[in-house]
Known about the structure:
Layout: H1 4-10, H2 17-28, H3 32-37, H4 45-59, H5 64-68, E1 70-73, E2 76-79, H6 92-104, E3 109-114, H7 120-132, E4 140-145, H8 148-160, E5 167-171, E6 188-193, H9 200-204, H10 208-213, H11 222-225, H12 227-239, E7 249-254, H13 260-270, E8 275-280, E9 286-293
Parallel strand pairs: 3-4, 3-6, 4-5, 6-7
Antiparallel strand pairs: 1-2, 7-9, 8-9
Amino acid sequence: MTTLRDLSLEYKGRIAPEDFTVLSAFVLGKTKEFVFREPDHVLSSEQDATLRPILDRRTGHEPVAYILGEREFFGLPFFVTKDTLIPRPETEHLVEEALESLSRHSEKTAVIDIGTGSGAIIISVAHKLFTDRPEDIRHEFTAIDLFLSALTVAKRNATRHDVLGHITFLEGNLLSPITEIISDDTGRILILANLPYLSQTLYESAPADVRLHEPFSALVADDEGLSLYTEVLDDIMRRKQDGWKNIPIDGFFEISPEQESSLERIFIDRFPTSEHSFLPDLSGRTRVFLFHIRYRE
Length: 297
């Protein structure tokens, strides 16, 4: 007979104790507290046969979120697969800033999440608004991703959190699917983006969990990680010459701290009179680039 203590000792040093606790609780259908309190709990043969392969997957650096099939973000559980990036706590800052921005403006806003992945950002925003302030249903929500497989996961999450009917999901590259969905009565556009922003160098120094299991295409971009954000800003600049010329545009981009000066130069080159700034994460490092473009440059 194998107890939780026996198995914990067997895998000691191969996986973190917290991971052992979470995965054991998952297989047993119990809480983490149960695993802590009952180290002498005897596993059934079926539980033993199920748990060992799962623990072995973790020793191969497979992220716990992929093993469990979900990750908590902004207080909500989100389905994740290997077609999507695992939502990070630091990305919750984008959600907080978006909600704060929407609370300060009364006009109808087109909220666009580029590279939505699991949909964690826009679904969290929509869920919070429609839970706390149902009158904000006037806003339009659009989620875009290049990969249909990621959009499938995002739609599952939107269904899970009762906002599927409030979000339009579009397949395509960056802003390219946005054509006529901006309504005549739209007073503002808010662009949210956690696009691939790692340079190849940063990617190569990332933990094995990331390099071996998360989608490369969701992590790495050319030009020291800034190529996709540059492309988005170029697209905004073109649209400002045409259909978006009279619409104020706000944006929040998640970035890596060392990209601050480079992205600032890129933005000023295109929008020299527009406002921009940077926000730190909880560790004090630059994490979010925000901008406000009011008029055509």
